[in-house]
Amino acid sequence: MKRTLSILVENQSGVLARVAGLFSRRGFNIESLSVAPTEDPTLSRITLVTLVDEQELEQLTKQLHKLVDVVKISDITEDDHIERELALIKVAAQPSNRQEILQVVDIFRARVVDVSERSVVVEVTGDQAKVDAMEQLLRPYGIREMVRTGKVAMVRGARTAPQVVREERAG
Question: Each residue's pLDDT tens digit in the chain (171 positions)?
Fold first, then answer.
C-alpha cells in the first residue's frame, strides 16, 4: 500500500541523507520526497511517499525512531489530510497552437510563468491526479521538460505536529 509519512526532524545537515539511507539499506523505494523547514526553524518536515505493507511500515517506523534527529513520525495516509504537488512543464508552443495550450492552462487554473518564441512554461498546483491530468493533456503539444516537487501533505484540524513536539519537549 502507498503510504504518506510526515516526519519531523531536527533541521541539521545530514538528516535527510540518514533518513534516505535507511530506506535504501532496507530496500524500500521512495516514490516522492519533499523536505523544508517548518514554522519552527529548528525543525524540518519530510513528506515521504513509499510503497510498504503494515509489517514493513512498522519496521521502518522503529528504525526511523532510532535515528537521533527524528522527532516524530506520522503515517497520515488514512488521516483526513490536504496534499498538493507543484509541477513546472515546458511545452512546445507555436503561434498556431498557443491559444489551445492557454485554454488547457485556464481550465486547470494553472498559470503561464514564462513565454518564449517556441515554448511556454506552465505552473500547476494540485493533487497528484490533477498534475497527472494536466501532463497528459499537454503531452500532445510536446513536453520539452518537466519537474515535479513531489507531494507535500498536512493533516486537517487545529492540532499541529510542531505544537505536539513543543509540548512533549517541555514536559
Answer: 999 999 999 999 999 999 999 999 989 999 999 999 999 999 999 999 999 999 999 999 999 999 889 999 999 999 999 999 999 999 999 999 999 999 999 999 999 999 999 999 999 999 999 999 999 999 999 999 999 998 999 999 876 654 445 445 444
Q: Which amino acid is at 64?
A: L
Report yes or no: 30 and 48 within 8 Å, Cβ to Cβ. Answer: yes
Own/partner long-range contacts of 111-114 (Cβ < 8 Å, ≥24 apart)? 113/88
Q: Under 8 Å CB-to-CB from 157, ≥6 apart: which residues?
A: 80
Q: Are 144 and 119 in contact (CB under 8 A)?
A: yes
Output DSSP code: residue 141: G
DSSP, res 127: -
Cα–Cα distance for residue pair 101/26, rounded to 1 Å: 44
Tell me the helix, strand and coil percentages in the chain, rounded to 5: 35, 40, 25
